[in-house]
Amino acid sequence: MQPFNYLIADTLDAALAEYAENRPVLKAGGIDLVDRMKERLATPAVVLSLGEVEVLRYIEPEGEGVRLGCLTTLADIGRSELLNSRYAALAESAGHAATPQVRERATLGGNLCQRPRCWYFRAIHFHCLKKGGATCFAVEGENQYHAVLGGGPCHIVHPSNCAPPLVAMEALFVVRRAGAEERVIPAREFFVLPSSALDRENVLAPGEILTEVRIPRAPDQSATIELREKQSFDWPLAMASVARVDGRRWNVCLGAVAPVPWVSEEAAEVLGSADITPELAARAGEAAAQAAQPMSDNGYKTQLIKVAVKRALLKAAGQEVPA
Amino acid sequence: MTWRPDNRLALENDGSRVDVRDKVTGAARYTTDYYPEGLLWASYIRCPYGKAFLRSSKLEAARAAPGVVEVELEKQEGTYPGDRLGHICAESRQALEQGLAALALEFERDRPATDIEREKKPLETFDEDPSVQEKQADLERIFSEAAHTLERTYQTQVQTHSCLEPHNSLVDYRGDHAIARQSTQATFSVRNELTEVLGLPPDKVEMHCEHVGGGFGSKFGLSPEGQLAAKLSKKHGRPVRVLMNREEEHLDNGLRPGSLQYMKLAIGPDGKLLGGRIHTWGSVGPVGGGGGTSNPSRYNFGIVAKTHQDVNLNSGFPRAMRAPGHPQGMFAVEMMMDELAEAAGMDPLEFRRLNETSDVRRAMLDVGAEQIGWHRRKPSGTWEGPLKRGFGIGVADWGNSPGEATITIHVYPNGNVEVLSGSQDIGTGFRTLLVDCVAHQLGIDRARVEAKVGVSTYPPGPGSGGSVTSRFVAPKALGAAEQARQDLRQRVAREWGVPADEVAAENGVFKHADRTMSWNEACKLIGQDRLTVTEKENGIFWKEPTGSEAVQFAEVEVDVETGIVRVKKVVALQNVGQAVNCKTVENQITGGVIQGISFALFEDRILNRQTGAMVNPNLEFYKIAGSRDIPEIVPIIWQSRPDAGVNSLGEPPVVPTPGAVGCAVANAIGVPVRRMPITPWRVLSALAERDGGAV
To answer: Which of the listed residues B541, B557, B580 is the one where a domain comes to its end?
Structure first.
């Protein structure tokens, strides 16, 4: 790791001011950033830690919904009775991410804003598209963990497993910036595809910090299914979060299969606002996988999408699914 | 004197390992816990690609970086990812990393050889081999008489050792002598190589290894880390540390070679194996070999013509890894056994019993079958619902032979005992073995005995490879303790004025008629500073060896919609001869099973086909079984004979697991997945292929 100056913000305003003025690199739990610094992928001169900004760590019911501070840890979310009972899709994915140790450090904001886990992006000797190079090595190389939807010219999958449930539950992301009003962005509009930007995965502008996630209305039903090779400390191969909000139609959002949390309009269309039956769930799964365009080695993900969607719907409907 | 030495050995000890507290509290000191004054750091400069030429580097910038002591480039061409092109040495780890970054290496890449299938010679080439030709007539006869003949190819991936404690060395050359510390499986081999590099006699080089965080065969000899540390320490007259990072661990510290295994085997109408043709290919480094597999092995295969080719790739070099050649060989063997049994319409357990070479294992098969509930096994692919259960069997054994070691024991007048060996505790419980042998033979509480190991000035002992440490050392530890016991018995007899052979010495208490003397009182009779005995002979404590046979049964659950495999239970029977300490024995068996499951389902060294660089040189994408991936494991210590000696244990328990898991998966889903690791991708592909599609 290269030497750097380490600043610790003790208030949000101080953090916003420092961030606006000197453009340090932000650190929340450090799970992602410290890895990238060790690999020399990030060599910041100044790191600004938000770790002491305790006011950003909360889970507050508000109206018919809930507000979560972005420094809330994944462990906090996984333990929350409120979230487990009314926002199951989120509590399940946060509560099963990585390992207990990582979940105690990893924050909601960090989970949503972490850089991709693509093994070409993560290694300094692959000068890939995302790092300013000319090649996406996944295209002709090892791509078993890469995108089957929305890929090109870069084929990462978005690593956040809190994002799909939040998109499905129609969450809003609150962004702050020094001297400006808060900006509220619907979760599904927060993430950007590589076809529009290669150097980032979301719409955050310089100086902006994601501070809060709002779920305006608890879903009537929700669930997440994540499919992993290993059951301990592994990234999902595919995941699906589903939610039905306010008696309206079902939302289906896929994770780990596209460069952004992938909203499946095809599945939503099949489902409408209907009650879930095994046949309907299976049809929705088929629909979600319809547009998949696998690469040489990740065709199996198409099948995993079908199963994840089907099982998430059945689980949301209170039916037993294989664990 | 007519004293009959007591060589009972029913230790059946269940004590915790003696250094458990040190390990749990962090008090145990590893090589990297030492920071001598004036420490320099050094590392290799490496080529990350499979085949590349160093086009440019900023050598002067690196040399000018603050704290950098020296930077040398010795060659320009890299022939495997991690190839050592030169080295860098600096005042601190920080300076070392900054110097490496300043080097800004630029490479010209060439197309690397990364794929064993693409690079291997075709099978037909090897049919010309004289060893095949001379069996040609037999093979033709066998295939014509066969009731069933199957032709299959199995593939296993490269597994890296992934020691949690990376390879590291600390050498402190002080002109007329040197002190070295290294994480090693062989204290004396490191010391011996140091004498050559440093130009010092063996008595002037003191080598220490207190604790080791895993070696699995990759930590023998001075190794690249020790070579560099020694060379630079001698040059600069300062202590030098070389500590590999995780990427270097994966790239250049050894691996279990990958394999392709072709088998064409025939069985007779009675289900007995008649023989056939086997050819294996092993993936090895850019030069040299080391890719052999133990296929055929264990079963009675009949007449087999076997050939092998090592396939050179632009990849790291193999290094011995826990039962080299065996887990991958037995994966193919067990999978083939199940496919043959299926073809013959026989139960795989019966088929194995019929073709088994060992009566011990035949008995173990029966007990294991009962323990796993083999009767619950259904014909392949007949389980209802998306979650399918399957059962599989794997077998192994390991050789046992005596070897050299010396043990010294000090008994102090206060009753405390020390047992010394220069051999190293690689984490498997060598200290515990010594303490339990000595305490048992003296009949005293194990808390009174301390083991001192891993220093080259202590008595010589073996390197920990080939599962030899316990079987080489235990007889001498028992013999030394027995000598000490007899010495004390004579002192007590003299004190009482009675013949020594009339004094009983049981459980640390000396008795004659109605007189008794405690261990502590007896030890006060030691006239000198202490009583020292040394033993280098096996004597009566070496017993005719057994075979360290192993049999494992695996039960798995496979989700055929997702391809996800979960191992539910493994019953692992292991013959170890005499178990000295049951907990450490069970621990070894369990560890072998976990490593075998991890190999079967997850671990995979993946090279990028364009550049030859490894895409997963970390523990995030080089996947190792975690706590939730580990099933119920039932280790069963098998003793085939009541009078057995201490036999091999380290390697055999890792051998049967991949085969047992592979067979269980095939039984569950009704189609064999012939390539490891058995990932969802491979399971779904195998199912789709059977159904005439592709994934």
So the answer is: B541
Angstrom distance (rounded) from CA A76 to CA A94: 9
Domain membership of residue B440 (yes or no) is yes
Query: Same domain for B328 and B359?
Result: yes
What's the pLDDT tens digit per position in B303-344?
A: 999 999 999 999 999 999 999 999 999 999 999 999 999 999
Q: Would you say residue B8 has pLDDT above 70?
A: no
A with B: how many residue pairs have Cβ under 8 Å apart? Answer: 96
Q: Quick one: which of B288, B313, B251, B250 has its CA closest to B119?
A: B313
Beta strand spans in chain A (E): 5-8, 25-27, 46-49, 59-62, 65-69, 172-176, 183-186, 209-215, 221-227, 238-244, 250-255, 262-263
Whether residue B674 sits in one domain with residue B574: yes
User: Do B431 and B366 reside in the same domain of the chain?
Assistant: no
- Do residues B80 and B286 touch, judged by C-beta distance below 8 A? yes
Q: Both B493 and B563 in a single domain? A: no
Residue bearing tokens 């487990």: A84
Residues of A with a Cβ under 8 Å from any B Cβ are 1-3, 40, 43, 99, 117, 119-120, 122-123, 125-126, 137, 140-142, 144-145, 227-234, 237, 297-300, 302-304, 307, 322
Indicate whether B565 and B613 sit together in one domain: yes
pTM for the full predicted model? 0.97
Q: Are residues B465 and B486 in the same domain?
A: yes
Mean pLDDT by 10 residues, chain A (323 residues): 92 95 95 94 96 93 98 98 98 95 97 98 96 97 98 97 98 96 97 97 96 98 98 96 94 98 98 97 98 98 98 97 90
Residues B127 and B241 sit within 8 Å (Cβ to Cβ): no
Provide the CATH number for the domain around residue B530: 3.30.365.10
d(CA B295, CA B620): 32
Residue B644 resides in a domain: yes
Kindly state whether residue B345 falls inside one of the protein's structural domains.
yes
Tens of pLDDT along B371-410? 999 999 999 989 999 999 999 999 999 999 999 999 999 9
Minimal CA–CA distance to A57: which of A42, A48, A68? A68
Give helix B657-669 / helix B680-690 axis angle, nearest 10°: 40
Residue of B nearest to A230 (CA): B629
B674 and B612 in contact (C-beta within 8 Å)?
A: no
Q: Over 50: is that where the pLDDT of B32 sits? A: yes
H-helix or E-strand spanning residue B99: helix B93-103
Contact between A245 and A220 (Cβ < 8 Å): yes
Alpha carbons within 13 A on the beta-carbon side of B56: 4
Residue from A145, A300, A321 whose CB has the most chain B CBs within 10 Å, to mutate: A300
Domain count for chain B, please give it: 2
Classify strands B259-267 and B273-284 as parallel, antiparallel or unpaired: antiparallel
Last residue of a domain, one of B541, B570, B589: B541
**CB B561 to CB A1 under 8 A?**
no
Alpha-carbon span A157 to A151, nearest angstrom:
8
In SS3 terms, B250-287 reads as: HHHCCEECCEEEEEEEEECCCCCEEEEEEEEEEEECCC
Interface predicted TM-score (ipTM): 0.97
Helix (H) or strand (E) holding B663: helix B657-669
- Domain that includes residue B373, residue range: 256-399+545-690
Contact: A234, B626; criterion CB under 8 Å:
yes
Tens digits of residue pLDDT in A55-98: 999 999 999 999 999 999 999 999 999 999 999 999 999 999 99
Q: Give the pLDDT of residue B7.
A: 34
- In chain B the first and final C-alpha atoms are separated, in Å, by 79
Lowest mean pLDDT segment, chosen from B7-16, B20-29, B183-192, B333-342: B7-16
- Selection from B436, B79, B130, B147 nearest residue B306 by Cα: B130
